[in-house]
Amino acid sequence: MIAFSRNDNSLLSRWWWTVDRWMLILIVILIVLGLWLALTASPAVAERLGLDSMHFVKKQGLFLGLSLISIITISMMSGNFVRRLAVIGLPITLVLMALTLWIGPEIKGATRWLQIGSFTLQPSEFLKPFFIVTTAWILSADLRGEKIPAKQVAGGLFLLVVFMLILQPDFGQTILVSTVWIAQMALAGLPLTWLGVAGGMGLLGIGIGYATLPHVASRIDRFINPASGDTYQVDKAMEAFGSGGLFGKGPGEGAVKLGLPDAHTDYIFAVVGEEFGSVAGVMLLLLFAGIVIRGLAHLMHEENPFRMLAAAGLIMQFGIQTLINIGVNLALLPSKGMTLPFISYGGSSMLALAIGMGMVLALTRRNRFITPWSDPLGWKAAE
């Protein structure tokens, strides 16, 4: 345990006494589990692809290290600094998303990535935290009584983001972003009538996607009627849970991962179920729930509208993404390529989640120290 005196005014000491250490510990536990599970889930996939058996483990370790550095660095920032980071980052990610349509490789019918050396960047992952915080900043102006059309501006920005996501296309991220945006609008006081209209438009969008995009229709059809198409991955995942039982077959002893194409990414929770059992799966789910509950508890008495809307949106994104991934693994939701936060392999997803959770830690700090000396990270500043 790090020991700092409360009278110590150093940057690290002030950070240590103001950050939510329990939430930080839970996030670090997830990061460590992610590396551990990479050791058991990814070698079989790497060997099947003709790569070194530790290929994904090494890259996962690098991403996790960068993620931990990002979380700690961003958690030291003030709310003002977090807002500036999001406002600058959002247009950059939108430009990068536009570039994917021109120069991005097409993978499984989608153009969501940019190849930068040996690293494949997915800009839409970074879009999520930047969009959520920017939307919170816009809506908070309305809650502070400023005379600007905040909800209209937030709505226009939302339509732009959804348009860019659909062009890729990425309906999973579209649904995630839309759900968080509607929740933020509700917290900002949007009338129930308009929330109903927004929800109806979302359902209409799903219907249009089903009618116009064959891969969307195929996934929904296979979910409703498994006999209508290929359900190999879902079937293998359910086989893994059945094989693992309550306590699992033991680390590295799982057999289903040998034939599961996305065992190290979208279906890593199935590997957990087979090798560590349903009890471990529930414990992992409780770990995610603990982070969400801890984050939301901070907002019960939050008086600053920006902090409340931004942190609530980021926590909801983290929780909903977790539920979508686990729901797909358990055949409770249609198949969708969405990672399990800090557990699944994926550099863009992991670094983007690190940015988001670093922002949550920054926005939920309490009892900030105010000192008269230079304050480069904005500790003295308020929104």
TrEMBL record:
Reactions catalysed: [GlcNAc-(1->4)-Mur2Ac(oyl-L-Ala-gamma-D-Glu-L-Lys-D-Ala-D-Ala)](n)-di-trans,octa-cis-undecaprenyl diphosphate + beta-D-GlcNAc-(1->4)-Mur2Ac(oyl-L-Ala-gamma-D-Glu-L-Lys-D-Ala-D-Ala)-di-trans,octa-cis-undecaprenyl diphosphate = [GlcNAc-(1->4)-Mur2Ac(oyl-L-Ala-gamma-D-Glu-L-Lys-D-Ala-D-Ala)](n+1)-di-trans,octa-cis-undecaprenyl diphosphate + di-trans,octa-cis-undecaprenyl diphosphate + H(+)
Pathway noted in the entry: Cell wall biogenesis; peptidoglycan biosynthesis
Keyword Amino-acid biosynthesis attributed: no
EC number(s) on file: 2.4.99.28
Localization annotation: Cell membrane
Main location: membrane
Coiled-coil ranges from the UniProt annotation: none
Matches recorded under InterPro entries: FtsW, FtsW/RodA
Keyword field: Cell cycle, Cell division, Cell membrane, Cell shape, Cell wall biogenesis/degradation, Glycosyltransferase, Membrane, Peptidoglycan synthesis, Transferase, Transmembrane, Transmembrane helix
Topological type in the membrane: Multi-pass membrane protein
Membrane-crossing residue ranges in chain numbering: 22-41, 62-79, 85-105, 126-143, 149-167, 276-297, 309-330, 342-363
Similarity comment: family membership: Belongs to the SEDS family. FtsW subfamily.
Protein known as: Probable peptidoglycan glycosyltransferase FtsW
Gene: ftsW
